[in-house]
Amino acid sequence: MNQDLAKLDYFALKTLVLLYQSKSCSDVAEQLKTSQPKVSRVLSQLRQALRDELFERRKYGLAPNDFLKQLIPQIESILQGYETLSAQLSSPVNKPALNISAQEQMAPWLLNSVSQAARELKMEFEINTQPYSRTCQSILSQGVLHYTLSVNRAPKELYDNLIIRELRRFSIAARKDHPIFESIRSVEDLLEYGLVLIYHSTKSKLRQHIEEYALSRGIRPNIKLMTESLNLALMKARNSDNIVLIGLSVNHDCQCQQYGEGIKCMDISDIWHESNIRQDRMERRFLYLQSHASNDQRLTQTIVRHLKDPHTPKH
């Protein structure tokens, strides 16, 4: 084995994934609560170990090269394995564990639903919440994860896809003084700015509706960042003119205000539908609870019921 490669630890790999997502050493340093020079040193170590430059230097940050784009899914899978193993090792030996994953804005909702289902059925286990990543669905199919929330339906033989609700409400988030809040009249107004989108899986070929809308009108959307992290998306918006587009699958209220000062949210569901985003030719999107086939079916159905219950706490 490459000796330099053997020296790479969890922190180094996590740094690389965050750099790939944010393209900024300063943003990554803030997320990891470390210094920018340390992030730069780790990047140098990564370049030496992987024998590639990994990024191209641009005027406004770093641009991942093709080699890194091919490598990232494997690295994310390694990180997911680290995190799952860590959770399992910290669990009491005699207590079964249930591993769940959802994007950060939906994780409390899933956790509350699982907890209520366990109490109702008088089942006892330790719940481990795993960070949502682009490899969650493949890990779920292996049985390492038990449940996840996603909009990406997969073949039945991999795991069960249980519909929770249709995604029909949308909001934008941007810095409080952003002109979009005064000027927006249609979805097309959003396309004048850089967009930050929340993805659910790079393995999915689904385009987001804003992409379909733009391309149907011959417009190439200016996507500045694609990330599974709402926190990272809002950080990007807080420090730029970029606009975050959020599909609200949890409730009708904009939830992003709790994630950072200086950020304002606006529900644009009416504008969204008036702009004919959801035409018949556009695929409807649903939020699914995805469950490994070996899970207890009573537990699974009870979790689904609590997820659908409007009284289940979402935060």
From TrEMBL:
GO MF: DNA binding; DNA-binding transcription factor activity
InterPro entries per UniProt: LysR-type_TF, LysR_HTH_N, WH-like_DNA-bd_sf, WH_DNA-bd_sf
Keywords assigned: DNA-binding, Transcription, Transcription regulation
Pfam families registered for this protein in UniProt: HTH_1
The HTH lysR-type domain, residue ranges: 8-65
Family per record: Belongs to the LysR transcriptional regulatory family.
Name listed for the protein in its UniProt record: HTH lysR-type domain-containing protein
Organism listed in the record: Paraferrimonas sedimenticola
Classification of source organism: Bacteria, Pseudomonadati, Pseudomonadota, Gammaproteobacteria, Alteromonadales
